[in-house]
């Protein structure tokens, strides 16, 4: 079923492409073969909470990025095969595959179809940006796929409408041969009734299917009202509700979330968004477990210039963590993050990414067990464009988690050197 879902996403895009009559108009093809070689030292290759094992790792990865575009559609397919060698832990050597698909096509009446998909077949743990955990802690092969199909329409000077379907599957995620599947059909509609007044409607159903715990279905809905103070400033008031329904004995719950905020654009490339609210979670069916509530807030600043791109954000509220390496459920959390890309010279770039996250899982895994986690990650990369086809990079990364459940703790540091050769051919 999991593989069929990924094929359905691909077949929808291909069928739609073939149904149009102008596929080959002004066709342009760019193929960029590449080969990447890197070596790094990792002081905790298994993300272990104790008795960490370090190793020197070498990776060789040829790849091909093919981009095809025409008057009404475009498609990009990027494939990479990666051979990984561990100097000491040779049992962890692996041949990994990565495939990314990104395409869109213009449809009648102002609609556009977009398809995105990312597939990983790997043995190495993969860190998900801004996530609680890694995809896999264990030394086994797994398949991981994320995909989305969405239909989008813009109403000039009025708003947008998007209908889509997201899918994720995680196969062989543990030695118990446990799999995970996530389905999420959704609707997002925003419309300005008058120049100053607008409305937003969101809806969807988040479905989780597990081999190792209770399945769930979570209908979600939200209503947002917008008011423009001027061309650059917009006020919004939002109310959202979701209902988590488990198939087994795990207690169900509802979440109610209310917030208000303001968005201000300083320019076309700089802006600020701030908001404050309140959420509360109610346990259902006489579970005997406590409800949970709290104040929420968010602040996000971004700025882009010809030389740098900067994003700073801080937020407090709740999250639901069911599809990572731990699946601890409902969380009360706050997050601080920073992303900076800076062009030191025309051929030398610096990238810094950092975040701190504090989580409290009041009933981890559906049980009356509170788990606290504090996760800090920071990475820095310096990248040299040696010539038109050859790049080199040095990167340092640090991941650190403290947890009340020591099995979830880890400390990992990595230093890496990378060489990449790529050349584009256009027809």
Characterization of this structure:
This protein has one domain: Maltoporin, Chain A (Beta Barrel). It has a 20-stranded antiparallel barrel. It is mostly beta strands and 427 residues long. The two termini are 38 Å apart. The chain has one helix at residues 2-18; strands at residues 28-42, 55-69, 73-86, 94-106, 111-122, 142-155, 159-171, 180-192, 197-210, 216-228, 233-246, 253-267, 270-283, 292-304, 308-321, 329-343, 348-361, 371-385, 390-403, 410-422, 425-426. The chain is 4% helix and 65% strand. Strand 12 and strand 13 (270-283) form a beta hairpin.
Task: Summarize the SSE layout with pairings.
Layout: H1 2-18, E1 28-42, E2 55-69, E3 73-86, E4 94-106, E5 111-122, E6 142-155, E7 159-171, E8 180-192, E9 197-210, E10 216-228, E11 233-246, E12 253-267, E13 270-283, E14 292-304, E15 308-321, E16 329-343, E17 348-361, E18 371-385, E19 390-403, E20 410-422, E21 425-426
Antiparallel strand pairs: 1-2, 1-20, 1-21, 2-3, 3-4, 4-5, 5-6, 6-7, 7-8, 8-9, 9-10, 10-11, 11-12, 12-13, 13-14, 14-15, 15-16, 16-17, 17-18, 18-19, 19-20
Please outline what is shown here.
The chain has one helix at residues 2-18; strands spanning 28-42, 55-69, 73-86, 94-106, 111-122, 142-155, 159-171, 180-192, 197-210, 216-228, 233-246, 253-267, 270-283, 292-304, 308-321, 329-343, 348-361, 371-385, 390-403, 410-422, 425-426. With 427 residues, the chain is mostly beta strands.
